[in-house]
Amino acid sequence: MNKWIKTGGILLLVCILIIPLAACGKEEMQKVRIAEVTHSIFYAPQYVAIEKGFFEEEGLEIDLKTTPGGDKTMTALLSDGADVALVGSETSIYVTAQGSNDPVINFAQLTQTDGTFLVSREKIDNFNWDMLKGKSFLGQRKGGMPQMVGEFVLKKHGIDPQGDLELIQNVDYANIAPAFAAGTGEFVQLFEPTASIFEQEGKGHIVASFGKESGHVPYTTFMTKSSYLKENSETVEKFTRAIKKAQDWVQEQSAKETAKVIQPFFEDTDLETIEMVVDRYKSQGSFATDPILDEDEWNNLQDIMDEAGELPKRMDYKQLVNTEFAEKVTK
């Protein structure tokens, strides 16, 4: 009996010594908490970066949560509930205009066009924008990028959003699609995959793309507080490199391959629909090909905000945009 006790004790001691040594050989993963403004196929490269292990290759562990709405997303970031926010760049302008000792900095761009589509209740073979005049248009939340881009495009086509049509803006973002399905509005501004699903179900018909009409803007970017950027510069660089790897992968692969990779994030959407949406966004250049937010895009964003009467004041590009990491990983 004593012999077995002695042997067991030796084995236990060996295990105690080996386990810490094995643990020391493994590099500790750095956790990064991302708050995304919505969960959308529009953000395909982000999900590719997670699913293909590009973040993991950089030693990063991603904790992703959806915080619906720009206000909730920025609250999560500012209150240290998240390290990085994926949201429209206009939110960084709003926060800075309100006064902040710790400015929010845009460091990596994910999408470079608007992601919404104009959906008509009735099928239209030869659509032109004048067809909206005198009609009811269910738009997006006032002050958000979809609404501002929507009005910008209407004005571009000679339509006064307040005078030439009935603009409906009193419906919450989450209820816009159900409201249209229930009979509100003759036209509606919708994101994918809802727009395509409505088309498949005969509830509406896609007639135009706001993304094609509005040009390049920093529609959705990764941003963080200036303090986090300074204290975790190596982490931010690794994060940006993972995003660039994903952007390259999405550009090189077919829409079908991308759809297969991101399907686990959209279990309620069939593969064919995901593929169709990815192809639509990719073909119109919605996915940024690199994480660099350039100055022309920044100025276009502020022009759109100004046109909508939502720009508190013009913000200098270098004040709220840091391209150091994006440029480094793109070289």
Automatic annotation (TrEMBL):
The keyword Ribosomal protein does not apply. Residues 44-253 form the SsuA/THI5-like domain. InterPro entries: SsuA/THI5. It is found in: Periplasm. GO terms for cellular component: periplasmic space. Its main location: periplasm. Keywords: Signal. The keyword Signal applies. Belongs to the bacterial solute-binding protein SsuA/TauA family. This is ABC transporter substrate-binding protein. It comes from Peribacillus saganii. The lineage of its organism: Bacteria, Bacillati, Bacillota, Bacilli, Bacillales.
